[in-house]
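Hi P.,

Sorry for the delay on this. The queue was packed all week, but I finally got your sequence through. Input first:
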Amino acid sequence: MGTVSVSWPEIHSFRLHRHHLDRPASKVQLVQVVRDACGIQSQFLSAASLALRARVRGLTMDDVERALWRDRTLVKAWSMRGALHLLPSEDFPIYNRGLSSRTSRSMRWMVRRGLTDEDADAIVAAIVDALRDGPLRRREVARRVVAAVGEKARPWVEHTWGGVLQRATLLGHVVFGPDEGNEITFALRETWLRAVRDISREEAELALMRAYFRGYGPATVQDFGAWADVAVADAKAIFKRLGDEVAPVTVSGRASAILRKDARTLRAARLASPVIRSLPNFDSYLLGHDRKDHLVDEEHYKRVYRKAGWLSPVVLVDGRVVGVWSYERKGRRLRVRVEPFGKLPRAVREGVEAEAQDIARYFESSEEVTFAS
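Then the structure:
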């Protein structure tokens, strides 16, 4: 198969389908939806649950919490870009091992502030020992680690960005446990996810890149590097090992690639009707590629991709952002405010209103929708 040219409508249709945004899945497919999306970013669990609401019919917060804390078929951990994600539990080693090259990079800012590799390894070992009896709150982890290795460990365990706890996650030892009141807890992966099979770094890197291209293709090595936050040189090495599993395509003259087995599906992809979804803050669909011009016009870019890594909730129509939205809950009333980037056709407005109704259903509220002029 030589290089073929594909259109943006074909690409949007392909990606929307892979992310279950064209036809939301059933609840029994919740884990598969998270797998197909290559994880759901979870800076806030409420936003992650709303992201899944857009992909799973009739989803409730209880469904997500049951999968995380009772069934443990999903796990919450630091992953791509150092951000919190929900991942399929059995795939945790793919993300953990597949992102191994991030571990040394994650240490750089700590090294610049005086933490040596030896100190970090000692703190990680103490964290693992502290969690052997079960999930603990951060301050309890810090107390036990300080007792084991000294006061110098405290700021590295209590750091709001994760500190050495994040390093312990990237090394495969720590995941998040259930919240206790308003406080998060951490759990030892080896006991929290007992049945998960470990795999080699080489196997995990290939599995991770395959998963990425399956969900976000066509894409480039640079796209994968930006999504995973790995060095382009490392991404190129993994891509080379995929060999004939990938096929070249061009998109508006840009060289790109797709999994060879997906090439025919991509060329046949079509949207039967407008796909209208209201996606929450930090939705993973908006973070899959280095360049974002296929998602949002340059003039509106900063209304979506804001300072300090914040992403606005967006209205997505056929794969492109046409506005932002917000909500406010007062009692059992949900007020949804939509700020379109331009005039919305009647069918789109009706689709946005239908999304607001389903968000209100999720919050067990009644909705009130306003469109900014």
